[in-house]
Amino acid sequence: MTTPEIDRTRLGALAEPASGDGRGDDVVFDVRDLSVSYSGNVALKDATLQVRENYVTAFIGPSGCGKSTFIRVFNRMNDLIDGARVEGTVLYHDRDLYGDGVDPVEVRRRIGMVFQKPNPFPKSIYDNIAFGPRVLGMKKGLDERVERALQSAALWDEVKDRLKENALGLSGGQQQRLCIARAIAVEPDVILMDEPASALDPISTSRIEDLIHDLKRSYTIVIVTHNMQQAARVADMTAFFSVEVRDDGGRHGVLVEYDRTTKIFTNPSDRRTEDYVTGRFG
Amino acid sequence: MARVEFQHALDTLEAALQDLGTVSLRAVRGALDALESQDVELCDEVIAFDDEIDDRYHRLEKMVAQLLALETPVAGDLRLVLAILHGGIHLERIGDQSVTIAKLTKLSATLQQRAGLVEGLHEMGERAEEMVRVALDSFASRDVARARSLVELDELIDRTNRRVAGQVLEFVDDPASAEWGMRMIVVSRCIERIGDNAVDIGEQTEFVVTGEFREFGDASH
Ligand SMILES: Nc1ncnc2c1ncn2[C@@H]1O[C@H](COP(=O)(O)OP(=O)(O)OP(=O)(O)O)[C@@H](O)[C@H]1O
Ligand SMILES: [Mg+2]
Fold it and tell me: Hey, CA dihedral for B58, B62, B63, B64, is it positive or negative?
């Protein structure tokens, strides 16, 4: 039997894997040789990666490898920590994020953050969402804005009849979605999430994961997670960080491997990644 | 090393694949012996033995399903589990080919054999058996080069298979041997398929080691 000659050029879309939905075409953050230290102690060394637009990018790695340190670089949260020093280049849409004349407050509006522990203000559900827009002078159509944010965070149906109630009366999972709604309300470009589901039960966790899938259509998302299956489920790209021990006994985080999530979880290039994702680490 | 239990489960799974390989090879040998000696009883044994192979395959499949559900293997572990499942499917098929050989042998047990062709089939059968052994060994030792050598072995079988039809045509006018000859064309094809299955297992070895899946040689075997 002979192999029939196949003219691949004529197969069109069949020959090429679908390029997807157009997400990921542009670079949002271009990070080069990033190092961060706290009072002279290096926490993260020489990390280089690009975060793509409308992608979910996951940071994984053992405790202390610098995931939170890194994610805080994206919205200049490290500026608020005494003794923190950021070196290297961080371009945000081709502009130097740490350049002169960049207003950290404006940065934090464009680049919102959701933390591990839900941290609503001890105010009404409505005021939690309305706070950011009010501060930023987005006072027009505030009710609609609050509703839209709650809808996007998949919380509207559960709270629409109790908007005046105190947010602290919500369940943990609801509080976390409220915090996501709060981040969305100021129309950010990027949402950073540092272990957003680690304090939640499995059902709330999967709601947050569904939410992330919805949100990536409109936002670029960077998420830190200790749950590797979560990274595998939600992320387009995954960065694996590890801790390196120096000769002087000090330890710092390094970026070991950054690639498509499917690659990281089916055929990682680095032995350390393989050991970590297969649970053979340590 | 962490995950000791998990590693143990992987080792058990791999042993189950080799075990399935051993019983499949036993079926091949039985079918080939029965073919040469036109031994109807042995044919029946080979046919009945297929349940044994199927059972083992289903057990393997169940172990894979459990491992995937409970341990969610990733990276090299995931590739190994998938490759074992694939390998298992191919071994089960080798069992099926042996059954077909046995059934055809039974149907033609009273017919006149032709010594030249029997010899050719015998040689082909031995090569196919050897290929299955190479496939299993190279999988166990993750020896990609050895797995790739299956392509050349397969080429030899393919060549013999192509000659069989011509040989049968030569004596097809002899009513005493014509029917036997027609059946042997299918037997030859079955042996050739066993070789193909061995090549497919070889491809799984490469997948486990490199993460790349490539068909060895041309896709049309
Ligand atoms: N505010 C801080 N002041 C001083 N050192 C800090 C500070 N935050 C982090 N570090 C140090 O930087 C290193 C990296 O910490 P980081 O919190 O970024 O790790 P992580 O990967 O997020 O860990 P985890 O998974 O436990 O959250 C650690 O050695 C930590 O002690
Ligand atoms: Mg952290």
Answer: positive
Q: What is the DSSP string of chain A?
A: -PPPP--GGGTGGGTS----SSTT-SEEEEEEEEEEEETTEEEEEEEEEEEETT-EEEEE-STTSSHHHHHHHHTTGGGGSTTEEEEEEEEETTEETTSTT--HHHHHHHEEEE-SS----SSBHHHHHHHHHHHTT--TTHHHHHHHHHHHTT-HHHHTT-TTSBGGGS-HHHHHHHHHHHHHHT--SEEEEESTTTTS-HHHHHHHHHHHHHHTTT-EEEEE-S-HHHHHHH-SEEEEEEEEE-TTS-EEEEEEEEEEHHHHHHS-SSHHHHHHHTT---
Q: A49, A31 in Cβ contact below 8 A?
A: yes
pTM of the model: 0.83
pLDDT at B106: 95
Q: How confident is the model at residue A137 (pLDDT cuts 50, 70, 90)?
A: confident
pLDDT, tens only, A149-182: 999 888 999 999 999 999 999 999 999 999 999 9
- CATH architecture of the region B3-210: Up-down Bundle (1.20)
Q: Which helix (H) or strand (E) holds B141?
A: none
| Residue A180 or residue A8, greater confidence | A180
Tokens of B207: 């997948």
Whole-complex ipTM:
0.72
Domain boundaries, chain B: 3-210
Q: Is B213 on the interface with A (CB under 8 A)?
A: no
Specify the pLDDT at position B44: 97
B1 touches chain A (CB under 8 A): yes
* pLDDT tens, residue by residue, A87-131: 999 999 999 999 999 999 899 999 999 998 899 999 999 999 999
Q: Do A228 and B74 touch (CB under 8 A)?
A: yes
Whether the predicted pLDDT of B172 surpasses 70: yes
**How close are the terminal C-alpha atoms of chain A, in Å?**
52
Q: Could you say which DSSP state residue B211 is in?
A: S
Contacts for A176 with CB less than 8 Å, ≥ 6 apart: A114, A118, A196, A197, A199, A200, A204, A208
Chain A positions touching B211 (Cβ under 8 A) are 266-267
Q: At what angle do helices B115-140 and B4-37 cross, to 10 degrees?
A: 170
Instruction: Determine whether the interchain pair B2/A277 forms a contact, defined as Cβ–Cβ distance below 8 Å.
Output: no
Rounded Cα distance between B8 and B3, Å, is 9
Structure tokens at B42: 């042995």
The answer to whether A74 and A111 are in contact (CB under 8 A) is: yes
CA distances from residue B10 to A271, A277, B77, B80, B84 in whole angstroms, order as listed:
19, 16, 8, 8, 10
Residue A72 in contact with residue A78, Cβ under 8 Å?
yes
By C-alpha distance, the chain A residue nearest B4 is A280
